[in-house]
Amino acid sequence: MIEKSNRATLRDASGVASIGSAGLLLESSARMPLYRQLYEQLRAAILDGRLEPGAKLPSTRILAEELAVARNTVMGAYDQLLAEGYLEGAVGSGTYVTKDLPDKILQAALPKRSTPSSGNPSRLSKRGQVLACNPIGVRHEGPPRAFRPGIPAVNEFPFGVWNRLMMKHWRRQPVDLLPYTTPGGYRPLREAIAHYVAGVRAVKCDAEQIVIVSGAQQALDLASRMLLDPGEEAWMEDPGYGGARAALLAAGVKPVAVPVDEAGLDIVAGQRLSPKARLAYVTPSHQYPTGVVMTLARRLELLRWAENSRSWILEDDYDSEYRYASRPVASLQGLDTSNCVIYCGTFSKVLFPSLRLGYVIVPPQLVDAFGRTKAVIDRHSPTVEQAVLAEFIAEGHMARHVRRMRMLYLERQNTLLDALRRELRGAVEVRSHEAGMHILAWLAKGKSDSVVARRARELGVEAPALTTYRAKPGGRGGLVLGYAAYSEQEIRSGVKKLAAAME
Ligand SMILES: Cc1ncc(COP(=O)(O)O)c(C=O)c1O
User: Fold this and answer.
1) What is the spatial distance between Cα 165 and Cα 171, in angstroms, rounded to a whole number?
2) What is the reported pLDDT for 370?
3) Which of 118, 301, 334, 468 lies at 20 to 30 Å from 195 by C-alpha?
């Protein structure tokens, strides 16, 4: 590893930035992956000016040698920085600090210098440091634009109905809903959810087993903290959902990246890579972000593994409402006979993300523990919103809205697939599109998705690179393209820009 250095200049005689003097210090024993440490440190050096705009970075080979790490580690960090616009150029043909870093990025970094804890990460606890460098808090900049994934068509929300239900509650001066209440949530909402998931997802539960949470993210956080001890291992889909990975890390758990194949999480690989894992995080209805639907055989194999190894399954059913081809496969929770599945659902995709309401369905033996822990975090979720939502479901508005959105999203998906076929003529491959609100467009082997994603962003299109969802760099590139929130015109003009970015 390179020693820390106080040298001010960061250029050697050849004009290549002397990264060593940027004070890079990678710790192989740290919980954060090496490529992520390198990414964080290079980003910090760019933001505070130690690496100047236009500075040429050493090749991945040279920096890897300097740091005594695998070349893939350096490529992973460079790819991420390229994807986020901090670097420009292509890995392999010269990589530079972006000349015109948007003021927004630089100014966002400035106030940090004057905060008391800046430049002194040791002022944070170890847990705090892990939390502070999680990637999910910085994703959503500006209003959504094609093809940012994970956003529903919020302009299609039935505002009138919601408004009527909200007014109805406030008009009657709901003093019964205003004091503190049970952490598990508003009883009629839990009953409405129990009924709803039994019908659409074959989930088997009593209303008591449901804890209302502030979105799936809180369910992932609760489950990680309640079920595993620091240092224990959990299987994490790779590529996979950063929010789940962040929740595991925050709980001190070691996420072990387990590959996903065309049938879902590769359980044989999981057993080889982490035989002692205590939990598996999965998105079986629609793997995030590849879109693979876990086969029934694989579901049964996963349940067998959990039962035999006395481990937990964390089932994240984030967008299962949107299936276009065949009937949904039964949820893992519905197939579970040994009470080992924790099921997370969210209203972020069926209604709107800022509602911050979701639910976790736990086996009977965990009900009390989850409720009490929810109380430690935030007592309970807002009751009036829960009451409105309960009526919204009970009166059939949610089912109607989902039906309408399913048709709209299918139409938008067809538009996107058609535009990709016309404009990109075979340059991308879409394997699964039977469900959800996004597709994964695989690039030709060897084509860098980070570079395409960066060029696309410069042209005004968001097309997150598959690389940014991977725990380890490498593997075939792809672009994650959300379509649910974008009009036909936005989709068609977005694909034209994507085509330009691919040239
Ligand atoms: C895989 C996955 N799980 C869960 C969520 C939803 O999280 P929340 O309910 O916290 O909004 C998302 C949102 O993008 C997601 O992609």
Assistant:
1) 10
2) 98
3) 301
User: How far, in Å, is the centroid of ligand 1 from the Cα of 217?
Assistant: 6
pLDDT digits (tens, 9 = 90+) for 267-307: 999 999 999 999 999 999 999 999 999 999 999 999 999 99
How much is the average pLDDT of 63-75? 81
**Pocket around ligand 1 at a 6 A CB cut-off:** 150, 215-217, 241, 243, 283, 288, 316, 318, 346, 348, 353, 358
Both tokens of 432, joined, read 């699964």
Lowest mean pLDDT among 124-133, 336-345, 392-401, 489-498: 124-133
Higher-scoring residue by pLDDT: 22, 59 = 59
Report cis status (omega within 30 of 0) of the bond before 239: yes
Q: What H or E segment, with its residue span, contains residue 258?
A: strand 254-261
Substitution site in 212, 317, 349, 359 for ligand 1 pocket (most atoms within 8 Å of beta carbon): 349
What gap in Å lies between CA 467 and CA 323, rounded to an integer? Answer: 26
Determine the Cα angle at 321 with ends 318 and 322, to 5°. 100
Expressed in angstroms and rounded, the spacing between residue 150 Cα and the centre of ligand 1 is 7
From 134, 316, 469, 480, give the residue whose CB has the most ligand 1 atoms within 8 Å, as the site to mutate: 316
The 10s digit of each residue's pLDDT in 429-467 is 999 899 999 999 999 999 999 999 999 999 999 999 999
Protein residue with least CA distance to atom 3, ligand 1: 318
Instruction: Return the sign of the alpha-carbon dihedral for residues 114, 119, 122, 124.
Output: positive
DSSP letters spanning 72-104: HHHHHHHHHHHHHTSEEE-TTS-EEE-TT--HH
Token pair for 481: 């393209």
Q: Which one of 140, 294, 318 would you pick to mutate in the ligand 1 pocket, going by the greatest count of ligand atoms within 8 A of its CB?
A: 318
Helical segments of 274-382, H only: 296-309, 332-335, 367-378
Vertex 384: Cα angle to 383 and 388 (nearest 5): 115
